[in-house]
Design a protein that fits this description.
Keywords: Coiled coil. By secondary structure, this protein is mainly α. It contains 1 helix and no strands. The chain starts with a helix and ends with a helix.
């Protein structure tokens, strides 16, 4: 059987990693949204330029 202290550390680390995963998921969504906005701006800019 695992040491209770070790189990506590594992549980705490898992919670830290879960929180980090949530943060990174939010950041990735923000980055993708901004990239999409830039792609739209690029298309609008290029279509205006071609006229």
């Amino acid at each position: 059987m695992l040491d209770p202290e070790l189990l506590e550390r594992i549980t705490a680390r898992r919670a830290e990693l879960d929180e980090l995963e949530e943060q990174l998921t939010r950041q990735l969504a923000e980055v993708r949204a901004e990239r999409d906005e830039l792609a739209v701006a690029d298309r609008v800019s290029l279509s205006g330029w071609a006229k």
